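Q: What residues go here?
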């Protein structure tokens, strides 16, 4: 009996944790993804709110190759209320076919979250990234600003896909004296 309970617990945890690295139903990651071209700095233009970035402005993510394989991810943002920069380092690995824009990212030990690139400019200048469900969405750019037409196009597509685009937070990226 005890062994059966343990087995059920292990299977349940496996399903729960694998669901965190999924992709929202009905969406597909981009194909012809080149992880080498994705490396470098991406500025957060807009996001749906979540506790890990709450109150942050000037958010950027820098991706680089890991010595042991995969990608190192460093997220950095400014919290005005505390007058300080916060930074966290994580790791990411491909989470599907090698040419798919699907990653699993971890900032907290063995727990991974889905990072699904659903739109990517052919020149790797901007992207629309979904988490494992429709509660997580990011609009990213290689530059601190994005032209209005591109931004509106990404928001419109996200809305069609069922994201709560009226709740998007535009991320301030202007200059701060104490960088």
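A:
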């Amino acid at each position: 009996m005890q062994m059966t309970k343990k087995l059920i617990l292990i299977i349940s945890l496996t399903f729960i944790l694998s669901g965190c690295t999924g992709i929202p139903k009905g969406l597909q990651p981009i194909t012809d993804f080149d992880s080498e071209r994705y490396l470098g700095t991406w500025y957060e233009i807009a996001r749906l709110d979540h506790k890990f970035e709450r109150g942050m402005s000037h958010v950027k993510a820098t991706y680089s190759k890991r010595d042991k394989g995969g990608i190192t991810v460093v997220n950095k943002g400014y919290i005005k209320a505390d007058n300080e920069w916060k930074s966290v380092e994580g790791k990411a690995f491909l989470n599907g076919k090698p040419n798919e824009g699907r990653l699993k990212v971890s900032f907290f030990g063995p727990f991974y979250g889905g990072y699904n690139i659903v739109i990517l400019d052919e020149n790797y200048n901007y992207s629309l990234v979904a988490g494992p469900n429709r509660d997580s969405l990011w609009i990213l750019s290689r530059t601190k600003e994005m032209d209005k037409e591109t931004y509106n196009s990404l928001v419109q597509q996200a809305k069609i896909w069922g994201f709560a685009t009226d709740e998007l937070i535009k991320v301030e990226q202007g200059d701060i004296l104490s960088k």
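A: Context that may help when evaluating the design: The longest strand covers residues 84-94. Residues 43 and 60 are 4 Å apart (CA to CA).
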